[in-house]
């Protein structure tokens, strides 16, 4: 098993579409993704990531032996928070529990701290998403607090956890 990050390619659209046509994954992401998630939706996302400002958006396919198994991105904030960025990621359900998420989060943290002036990366998983919380903890993120009743997802008010990794 080799978890690697690489820039998106338009040829990844089919695999991305298959990954995101899964309600279990969508239940843990922010709203805005269509369902069903078509190849055209995937192509639009990939093009947006390829066209994004390379100093603001750091978006990668997560791969295992060149097979796309997920997505990860770090998105720089602005104004007084310009050296802070938010992390988001997901792994295809067949690849859950194999360490890919932890390896991908570690890799992107190292990459961001080595190549940018960002000093803080944070993530806000739903508190109920124990797998994602565990990935962040194993990757060195520290729990900073619980954001009570912070989001409305699928008609339910949700608590979220705030994790951060800070450049030392």
Automatic annotation (TrEMBL):
Q: Which InterPro entries match?
A: Acyl_CoA_acyltransferase (IPR016181), GNAT_dom (IPR000182), N-acetyltransferase (IPR051531)
Q: Give the N-acetyltransferase domain ranges.
A: 3-165
Residues folding into a coiled coil are none
Q: What is this protein called?
A: GNAT family N-acetyltransferase
């Amino acid at each position: 098993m080799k978890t690697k990050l690489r820039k998106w390619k338009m040829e990844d659209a089919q695999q991305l579409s298959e990954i995101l046509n899964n309600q279990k994954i969508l239940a843990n992401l922010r709203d805005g993704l269509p369902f069903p998630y078509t190849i055209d939706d995937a192509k639009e996302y990939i093009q947006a990531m390829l066209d994004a400002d390379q100093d603001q958006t750091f978006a990668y396919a997560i791969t295992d032996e060149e097979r796309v198994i997920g997505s990860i991105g770090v998105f720089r904030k602005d104004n007084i928070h310009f050296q802070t960025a938010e992390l988001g990621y997901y792994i295809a359900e067949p690849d859950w529990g194999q360490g890919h998420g932890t390896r991908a989060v570690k890799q992107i943290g190292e990459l961001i701290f080595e190549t940018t002036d960002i000093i803080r990366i944070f993530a806000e998983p739903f508190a109920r998403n124990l797998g994602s919380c565990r990935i962040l903890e194993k990757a060195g993120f520290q729990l900073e607090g619980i954001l009570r009743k912070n989001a409305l997802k699928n008609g339910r008010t949700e608590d979220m956890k705030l994790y951060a990794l800070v450049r030392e």
